[in-house]
Design a protein that fits this description.
With 325 residues, the protein is mainly alpha-helical. The chain contains eleven helices and three strands. It is elongated.
């Protein structure tokens, strides 16, 4: 599709149509991850970014709070882009109403104003803050707490170690400088597996909140678009009246969601839950690869610029340490 567009419209198609949403997504992701690191460092000074590892790792409550702050920051930054996405019509570009995406963004944002940009932002704020709180909290919990616990249990008994590691510990104990505590290192593939598993678990945890709220948000945005269109068509209302319309839109959205759930499934809370989570599994499975790779890259970059000499030693009562470099 991209090659066909370039052949028909020339290479200017990329900077005028493809580059704007790509830059927007990059900026939103950068704000999210940067805010998370700064918030985590403020809540737990040991996680200031200069250490490759933090042991013991920060608790789930700390990483959840930092993730919620990152999600809130992302929600505010992404509000204009969400407003553009909801109101996007391909026909407006195809019929020449806007020459490119830059022109579309400028004229559309100017037309809807700040009131239209941040309409429904409370729902987005709730979705992103709780969703990213679970996302980063689950990722750090599986990557750190679960990994350290597994390493301590799996390598925590001298009798269950492989013969190679037992011989390695004995060789360190028989050296001239036997005052040093012997050390062993886990298999190099164990931690990457935990990081990948953390990405999968984080994606599912995030979708438990974001997917149902996204379905509600789609209904709500459709109602908000109708309000904004009415205000733009000359049926403008005083500020107090417009705010009243936006407030009433939440109640109408909830009633619309209940009606949709009743039509699709059945009445009662069970029908609403089925409607909210319908299709979540397939959506999450599509998201898992990109989320896992993104978190892996995030972790690699974070460790690349950490102190090389920083290591973690987990002491075992049998008389040796587990070394995590």
């Amino acid at each position: 599709m991209l090659a066909h567009a370039v052949r028909t419209q020339g290479w200017t198609f990329i900077p005028s149509q493809v580059l704007p949403p790509l830059l927007a997504n990059t900026a939103i992701s950068a704000v999210c991850y940067a805010t998370y690191l700064q918030a985590l460092a403020a809540l737990d000074p040991r996680s200031c970014g200069t250490l490759k590892r933090v042991y013991p790792p920060p608790p789930f409550s700390t990483t959840f709070t930092a993730g919620a702050a990152a999600g809130a920051a992302q929600s505010l930054i992404a509000a204009p882009f969400d407003a553009l996405q909801v109101r996007f019509r391909a026909s407006e570009l195809l019929h020449g109403k806007y020459s490119n995406m830059w022109s579309y963004a400028y004229h559309k944002l100017r037309a809807i104003g700040l009131r239209g940009i941040f309409a429904g932002s409370s729902l987005s704020l709730c979705k992103d803050s709780v969703g990213y709180g679970l996302f980063f909290g689950t990722f750090e919990f599986v990557k750190s707490q679960c990994f350290y616990t597994f390493a301590s249990k799996y390598y925590g008994s001298f009798g269950t170690l492989s013969s190679t590691k037992q011989d390695f510990i004995r060789s360190q104990q028989t050296r001239e400088n036997s005052d040093l505590i012997p050390t062993i290192e886990p298999h190099y593939m164990i931690e990457p597996i935990f990081i990948m598993a953390a990405g999968v678990a984080a994606s599912f945890a995030q979708q438990l909140v974001q997917y149902p709220l996204s379905r509600v948000q789609d209904v709500h945005h459709g109602r908000l678009a109708g309000i904004v269109t009415g205000l733009m068509d000359g049926r403008s209302a005083p500020r107090s009246s417009a705010l009243h319309l936006y407030q009433r839109a939440y109640g109408k959205t909830f009633r619309r969601v209940v009606v949709s759930a009743r039509r699709s499934f059945r009445t009662g809370p069970a029908g609403l839950v089925f409607w909210l989570y319908s299709g979540m599994l397939s959506s999450t499975l599509r998201q898992v690869p990109s989320a896992s790779v993104g978190l892996m890259a995030f972790e690699v970059i974070r460790r690349k610029y950490a102190l090389e000499a920083d290591v973690v030693r987990i002491h075992i009562e049998s008389g040796y340490d587990i070394l995590l470099a």
